[in-house]
Design a protein that fits this description.
The complex is a heterodimer of chains A (315) and B (273).
Chain A (H helix, E strand, L loop, with lengths): L10 E12 L2 E12 L3 E5 L6 H8 L7 E6 L13 E3 L12 H9 L8 H7 L15 H13 L5 E5 L7 H16 L3 E5 L3 H7 L2 E6 L2 E6 L1 H8 L2 E7 L4 H4 L4 E6 L5 E5 L2 H10 L4 E8 L2 H10 L4 H10 L1
Parallel strand pairs in A: 3-7, 3-8, 5-6, 6-7
Antiparallel strand pairs in A: 1-2, 1-4, 8-9, 10-12, 10-13, 11-12
Chain B lengths: L1 H6 L11 H17 L2 H19 L3 H4 L2 H33 L1 H6 L6 H30 L4 H4 L7 H12 L1 H13 L2 H18 L11 H7 L3 H14 L5 H26 L5
Helix pairs in contact in B: 2-7, 3-5, 3-7, 5-7, 5-9, 5-10, 5-11, 5-13, 9-13, 10-11, 10-14, 13-14
The chains are: A alpha/beta (315), B mainly alpha (273).
Chain lengths: 315, 273
């Protein structure tokens, strides 16, 4: 699955046969994973799949129970290994009483050649707020500050855990622009997000993780073709549950506009059935599934419908 | 993109900032954070002075006796340092562990040491600010200063006493760290309070040990608070210092330091379950 062109590139972060359990709960089970220089890797998976645990291992916050984790060829728990790493704090955890400028200065002064604070804040549209205390920032401003902190040390690898959660559309676009700039400058990005359409446009490679294991690893198209999910939508008076039991169907749901959407592994068969069973329908549309839908079918094997509701709640 | 990335030679890892610089930036951030909550700073600063005003000044038998005055001032000074260290660390560290910001700071290219030292420096600095008003109020309202003005005691004892009081806080700093690393913040508040008052009382910080029963006095001599109290009183008032107090103090300091280091190491891998 790994493209041959990557094999001679420098590995920035890697997990080799890594397992991690919390008590009786297995968070990661024998995970192999690498990020090479210049890549943008999207890490996808439902809540509780082990994404955050993997990121925490790579950024030196935790130790694996077995296996080996590497960051720039060193143990991530060694502070030296983290000199070229940028991460974000979790939402709303900035020190409330420090000023924005002071917070950026504080983080930046850990690095050999940080981006000048004023320049960084202007780039993120926070120039006017630089003298505010962090606790006084709006939610969107806080999120932007958090991502700015990841970039202040001119890192070679940036790890972002759901950076766009809670951002409005404009702030999200600004953020992706900044990250695109970073990437254009040769930066490497490892990112998780619930906005899968964005990962789809940004990431060169997607890794899907579920139940503590990597279930898919490849470029966006490869992931999609691997699951080859189609979306068949139409208007009908029958309830969605009628279609759920049919072979090849991943899920069936009723949208707000009244259209019934069936995700299926075999669109042809689904349409044939509709006709054969003389189901009354109109406005039939068939599309290739989005990455998000592909992702649902990949992760649904292990979980039941509760994965769906959890995922929706998280958005 | 692939071409440029592949062509780039393996980057040499830039070195981390020198330790001194890291301690400086962490201290700066912590001091700023504390100063932005003036009420908290003010209350910890005036606490020992208030204790002096309420518990010592009404006792004319004490305030008219220079030796007893100096003893009371020294006891309350080290009491203030002990409470500042125990509460700052015991509760502060426990709260910090639960705070995602501190887990973020651990992803920066810095070990645990600079932040811990910065905490100690910050705590000592604020404890120092608490000692100044104690000395001023003590000098102006008690007879203690007489021993200095009449030449019985040399003036160098006053600055030396301040340093000694701050150093006497060290075992309590380590005890606070130990509690902070072992407990969640709610448990840490309770444990610190349960530990603090008996230590302060049985250590002779509130009432002088001369009025203790023989049994309590013997027990007291095994406590770090009593040892810290004896050393503190001796520094300011010139009272005899038993060698056993110094020994007791050193043993406790080493033990609690080892405990704090152990708790910190143990904590690293499983802070954020």
């Amino acid at each position: 699955m790994t493209a041959p062109s990557r094999s001679f590139q420098e590995v920035l972060a890697a997990a080799h046969g890594v397992s991690k359990a919390y008590g009786a709960t297995t968070a990661l089970d024998g995970v192999d994973f690498t990020v090479t220089a210049g890549e943008t890797v999207g890490l996808l998976g439902p809540n509780g799949a082990g994404k955050s645990t993997l990121l925490n291992l790579l950024s030196g916050l935790r130790q694996p129970d077995s296996g080996r984790v590497e960051l720039f060829g060193q143990d991530p728990r060694n502070p030296l290994a983290r000199q070229a790493l940028g991460t974000t704090p979790q939402a709303t955890s900035v020190p409330a009483t420090l000023r924005v400028r002071e917070t950026v200065d504080f983080v930046g002064s850990h690095y050999a050649s940080p981006v000048p604070t004023a320049e960084l804040l202007d780039g993120f549209g926070l120039g006017a707020a630089s003298n505010k205390q962090c606790g006084g920032l709006s939610g969107g401003q806080q999120r932007r500050l958090l991502v700015a902190l990841a970039l202040v040390g001119r890192p070679r690898l940036v790890i972002l855990d759901e950076p766009t959660t809670g951002l409005d559309v404009e702030a999200r676009e600004n953020l992706w622009e900044r990250l695109a700039d970073y990437r254009a400058g040769g930066g490497t990005l490892l990112i998780t997000s619930h906005y899968l359409d964005e990962i789809q446009t940004l990431a060169s490679r997607v890794v899907v993780i579920n139940g503590g294991s990597v279930v898919a690893d490849g470029n966006v198209d490869a992931i999609r073709s691997r699951v080859s999910i189609s979306r068949v939508s139409f208007h009908t008076s029958l309830p969605p549950s009628y279609f759920e039991s049919q072979p090849g169907t991943v899920s069936a749901s009723l949208s707000a506009s009244g259209a019934t959407t069936v995700l299926t592994h075999d669109a042809d068969d689904t349409v044939r059935r509709l006709v054969r069973e003389q189901v009354e329908f109109r406005g039939l549309e068939v599309h290739a599934a989005s990455l998000e839908e592909a992702f649902i079918s990949l992760t649904q094997r292990a979980g039941g419908p509760e994965h769906n509701t959890e995922r929706k709640a998280a958005r | 993109m692939t071409g440029t990335a592949a062509a780039r030679p393996p980057a040499t890892q830039p070195a981390n900032k020198p330790l001194f610089e890291l301690i400086r930036i962490h201290t700066r951030a912590q001091v700023l954070e504390q100063l932005r909550i003036p009420v908290a700073v003010l209350s910890s600063t005036v606490f020992p002075t208030l204790a002096l005003v309420f518990f010592v000044l009404p006792q004319t038998a004490v305030t008219s006796d220079p030796q007893a005055s100096l003893m009371s001032i020294a006891q309350l000074a080290v009491f203030g340092v002990m409470s500042a260290f125990l509460f700052n660390y015991g509760i502060g560290v426990a709260e910090e562990r639960a705070n995602p910001w501190s887990s973020y700071v651990r992803t920066l290219p810095v070990g645990a040491f600079p932040a811990t030292v910065a905490r100690a420096i910050t705590a000592m600095m604020f404890a120092f600010f608490a000692l100044v008003p104690v000395l001023v109020v003590g000098a102006t309202t008690t007879a203690g200063l007489q021993l200095y003005t009449d030449g019985t005691l040399s003036w160098w004892r006053i600055p030396v006493s301040v340093v000694v009081w701050l150093l006497c806080g060290l075992p309590f700093l380590f005890l606070g760290l130990l509690i902070g690393y072992l407990c969640t913040s709610k448990v840490a508040i309770a444990v610190t309070q349960v530990v603090f008052f008996p230590l302060a009382f049985a250590g002779g910080m509130m009432l002088p040990p001369v009025i203790f029963s023989p049994g309590l006095n013997t027990f007291s001599q095994f406590l770090p608070s009593r040892a810290a109290r004896d050393i503190s009183v001796s520094a300011l008032s010139g009272e005899d210092l038993p060698a056993t107090s110094v020994l007791c103090f050193l043993v406790w300091t080493v033990l609690l330091c080892a405990g704090a280091v152990w708790a910190n190491r143990r904590d690293q891998g499983r802070r954020f379950r």
